[in-house]
Design brief:
Number of helices: 2
Subunit structure: Binds ribosomal protein uS19.
GO molecular function, one term: ribosome binding
Subcellular location: Cytoplasm
CATH architecture of the largest domain: Beta Barrel
Main location: cytoplasm
CATH superfamily of the largest domain: RimM
Structural class: mainly beta
Number of domains: 2
CATH class of the largest domain: Mainly Beta
Order of helices and strands: EEEEEHEHEEEEEE
Helix content: under 10%
Protein name: Ribosome maturation factor RimM
Number of strands: 12
Strand order of the largest sheet: 1-2-5-4-3-6
Shape: elongated
Strand content: over 45%
């Protein structure tokens, strides 16, 4: 497993002083206030950027990095993912998981029949929905306690109880 987690995607430059607009990829928006530095990965390698300021406008985060001081430099970051180390990630509850740890996990029914592979996580208003690819089709599984019985990150295995109609 890769030791970095994506917390946002830079969508564009903002203003003329090197700020960037970031679309958050985390449920914990306040976590941006706690970031001292982040990583940007490119073909040439990894770059560490120090976070100078953070503020919010609507559903976007406006971030100023100490190393980026004008709009042209900020524009070069467009489309890049902002990543942090797992050590800097928010602490999750026992029944919470990082999406990247769930993707491509094998999914089994509670009678140990292999159902398929978890391919996507859909964010809905009430609860997340897991998209499991089977041999025949995709199955949408609500991420609720009545359905998700066990998640083993190390073994890359999830056990589910399929409700009638799934």
């Amino acid at each position: 497993m890769d030791d970095y987690l994506s917390v946002g995607k830079i969508t564009s430059a903002y203003g003329v002083n090197g700020e960037v607009k970031v679309f958050p990829l985390t449920d914990h928006l306040d976590r941006f206030y706690d970031l001292d530095y982040v990583y940007i990965f490119e073909e040439t390698g990894k770059t560490s950027l120090n976070v100078e300021t953070v503020r919010f406008i609507k559903n976007l985060v406006i971030v100023k990095f100490k190393e980026i001081n004008d709009r042209n430099e900020a524009e070069k970051l467009k489309g890049k993912l902002i990543k942090i180390t797992r050590d800097n990630a928010v602490k999750l509850d026992d029944d919470e998981y990082f999406i990247k740890d769930l993707l491509n996990m094998k999914v089994y029914t509670d009678d140990q029949k292999e159902l398929g592979i978890l391919k996507d996580v859909l964010k809905t208003g009430a609860n997340d929905v897991y998209v499991v690819k089977t041999d025949e089709r995709d199955i949408l599984i609500p991420a609720i306690k009545d359905v998700i019985k066990k998640v083993d990150i190390k073994e890359r295995k999830m056990t589910v109880h399929l409700l009638e109609g799934l």
